[in-house]
Amino acid sequence: MSSTSSPSPSLLSDNNNSNNNNRNNDNYDVIDFNSMDLEWKHTENTNSDNVRAVQMASECRLILSGGVDTTAILDAASTLNIIFDVAITCVIGDTSPDELYAKYAAYKHSTHIKKHIIVQMTHDTLIDIYLPKTIQTLEVWDGMTIRNSLVIAAAFEEASKQNLTDVLVGDGADELFGGYTFTWGKPKMCPIEWKNKRDTMCKQWTFATSALAKSYGLSAHGPYMDQELMVDWALNETHRIDCIRDDTPLIQLLLGQPYAHHTTGKVLLREAFTTGSSWRRKDPIEVGSGATIIGKDIYYNNPNGTTPKHLCITDEEFEIAQQELKEKENIIIPSKEYLTNIRLYQKIFGGFIHSTKTRYPKNDIQGCIGCCFEIGNATFCKLCGSYPAQHNSNITPYISK
Ligand SMILES: [Zn+2]
Fold this sequence. Notes:
Keywords: ATP-binding, Nucleotide-binding
CATH class of the largest domain: Alpha Beta
Region (Disordered): 1-26
Number of domains: 3
Pfam family, one: Asn_synthase
Shape: globular
GO molecular function: asparagine synthase (glutamine-hydrolyzing) activity; ATP binding
Protein name: Asparagine synthetase domain-containing protein
Oligomer: single chain
Bound molecules: zinc ion
């Protein structure tokens, strides 16, 4: 990216349809969004008593593109006249909600993005090309982590092909501003309790992005992770009332589709940057990109005859492997996706070996309940996805899917 000047930040409006996309180097046909009669809910959703939005837009210099968070970065960067050489969006299969939102964001900011690349591939290509390297880089087999990381890896490989050295990502916004459903809490909960939980989560956060970027020769930068400008400000100044709005906001699942009332997080971010994605539902990377089906057993059952033979796993084969892993290795695998991941993990590392983690015998409380690798004080095992990962926890057992 390059910056030509730094004018005072100001808000952009998606109601301004005068912007024409005249670039000719995108790798897809230009969509005439003007003719789509798109409907926005910025006015209905914006709380006029809330001054946080304006503060956020003026105090924090953000930068990039995609869902609520990355589109806000792109919007902020545009106000600073920062021009991106390339914006990259990954679309897996043919039902990605990200695709149209990302194209719209690129369309609206066509003067600030030189080239928008849609990286499109099938689910089996995503697995075949990116799964081995992702497991090798991250040393995990947890399904949720892997699914999201595969999509990031595909984007990073494209960035590498484009000879980029630095990329901007949206990591951190969900943690800081209550993006995840499980961080919303209840309307009448103690605000201090919500803030304490949020602050603790943010002080312990780790992201797979840096390691993945490094594996493709890139440096990843996260504007929401800037300690002084963003993290310290957010933890000191924002509370549940700024981040979560219960029941009333009008939220959209797909661009051009109807809105419905729903509780949502990241309200101050949605209000601060009035983009086409501002009142879109928060989708995890795997959902937004369309990769989710690889986490479901049905994909490995080859229901439509489209799953390649080498990725198919019959129910009988899975049950036998599941039983063997439990009896011989004390490892719990909840799905066929995990079996795929764990087989590759064993092949890459020569068994259940980790570069930094010790593996303990069954029932040793130093080990994770799902994989026996050392767990320390963590409640979630990043390696196998067990939650709770502690032997003596009274939380209902769960393994992320
Ligand atoms: Zn584990």
